[in-house]
Design goal:
The complex is a heterodimer of chains A (88) and B (330). Chain A is an alpha/beta fold and 88 residues long. Helix content of chain A is 49%, strand content 16%. Classes of the chains: A alpha/beta (88), B alpha+beta (330). Chains A and B meet through helix 2 of A and helix 12 and helix 13 of B.
Chain lengths: 88, 330
């Protein structure tokens, strides 16, 4: 990593988006309370446009209520585009 | 220059005796555990002691011991040691997380649990030397002044917020405090240790003159207890909570049998929410119930002129802390 990459926090490798399922779930509950439950998933969709892999941490939180159900269309369209999803 | 002496007794009784002797002799004596707060206060001339009684050499106060009766944490155990101790992490996650959230690694390496619980407020008027209630004066400048970081519950006539991260966790976990003074020992529940300014606006707790918080006793955790500490800061790290919540619940088959919720950063003392706890007991912690509980948590809040933002923040903090304990086991 050179100084420029460091300052931009880029490693030069495969662009990967890391998302905590716990944080996403909290954000989903907030969005539901504000009457727009799809907001976190639109956000995720936008963020996935620039990457080829998604790393989901705290994967146990996917089982919380209908989080997995809400995420499935987003992940499916990402996979169709050739994206890889890794759940940890 | 004022003369300043320091003594390092090896026994707690001796420390108490030295404090009492100094006070009776008209000297101003102060206790130092890690000294991380005291040193700054001496530099700022908020306290001008003649004698510092350092507890660093007192035997036995830097130990954590677990047994059938629970866990005993000496008052001199550092915040870093508290946050890393396996028994604390396993049985009292809220305390480990609260201790981990304090200040910086350098502070956590020297600051003690008792010192964190007993630290003086960080109100900017008090720390800047204004003649407020805490500095021996007769007013609270925050009441109508710069009160962005002040109380929304329990305030008046002073509107400080209690600065300790570990205090809400200890109240939520049902800790007992062993206090040692010239008249002997007494044990006080954490929830009764902290006092509101309506009683005496100069003080934050029930410690008497020359009394020391020697030890913290935590009851054995129920097998289904989960707890957490959720803290919101006005910057990424290294500061006090703007709002925080310590939550401890007993969950059996997804049903909440017992709940304890205590807010930090919003009142002059850790602020328990018994009405909200009763809403949860006997129920499944669904996102909808948690949202209702969070709404109930801020009922009765009385924001000052510049801290109304703390009300929705407290609501969100309670919601997030409850969702965290209701979610998958960590």
């Amino acid at each position: 990593m050179n100084r420029r990459q460091f300052l931009r926090m880029r490693t030069g490798g495969e662009p990967v988006l890391e998302v905590s399922c716990q944080h996403l779930y909290m954000r989903y509950v907030d969005a539901r309370l504000h009457g727009d439950p799809a907001e976190p998933f639109r956000w995720l969709e936008r963020r996935l446009r620039g990457v080829s892999a998604l790393r989901l941490s705290d994967g146990a939180w996917l089982a919380s209520e209908d989080l997995e159900h809400m995420m499935e269309p987003v992940l499916a369209s990402f996979r169709v585009r050739g994206g890889r999803v890794q759940v940890e | 220059m004022r003369p300043l002496a320091s003594v390092r007794p090896r026994e707690l009784d001796e420390a108490v005796r030295l404090l009492e002797q100094a006070r009776r002799g008209g000297r101003r004596a102060v206790l130092a555990g890690g000294g991380s707060d005291l040193l700054g206060m001496v530099k700022e001339r908020l306290v001008e002691p003649d004698l510092i009684v350092s507890l660093r050499d007192v035997r036995g106060l830097d130990q954590v011991a677990s047994g059938a009766e629970g866990t005993r944490i000496g008052g001199l155990v550092t915040l870093d040691a508290v946050s890393e101790h396996p028994a604390v992490r396993a049985g009292y996650a809220a305390l480990a997380e609260a201790a981990q959230s304090v200040g910086t690694p350098q502070i956590r390496n020297v600051a003690t649990l008792a010192g964190n619980v007993c630290q003086r407020p960080w109100c900017w008027y008090y720390r800047a030397g204004f003649p407020c209630f805490k500095n021996g004066g007769g007013t609270c400048f925050a009441a109508t002044g710069e009160n962005q970081l002040h109380a929304i519950f329990g305030g008046g006539p002073s509107y400080i917020v209690h600065p300790s991260d570990t205090a809400p966790a200890l109240v939520a976990l049902g800790a007992l405090f062993r206090l040692v003074g010239p008249e002997g020992e007494r044990v006080v529940p954490a929830g009764e240790f902290f006092t509101l300014p309506g009683k005496d606006p100069a003080r934050e707790n029930v410690l008497k003159a020359d009394e020391v918080l020697a030890e913290i006793l935590l009851p054995p955790p129920a097998p289904a207890t989960r707890s957490t500490y959720y803290k919101v800061l006005d910057r990424e790290a290294w500061t006090h909570a703007v709002v925080s919540a310590a939550v401890a619940v007993d969950l059996e088959g997804g049903v909440c049998r017992r709940a304890r919720i205590v807010l930090g950063g919003v009142a002059p003392a850790p602020w328990p929410l018994p009405r909200v706890e009763r809403m949860l007991e006997g129920q499944r912690l669904t996102a909808d119930l948690v949202a209702q509980a969070a709404t109930a948590a801020v009922r009765g809040a009385v924001p000052l002129t510049k801290n109304g933002y703390k009300v929705p923040l407290a609501k969100a903090v309670v919601r997030r802390a409850l969702l965290a304990v209701a979610g998958p086991a960590r």
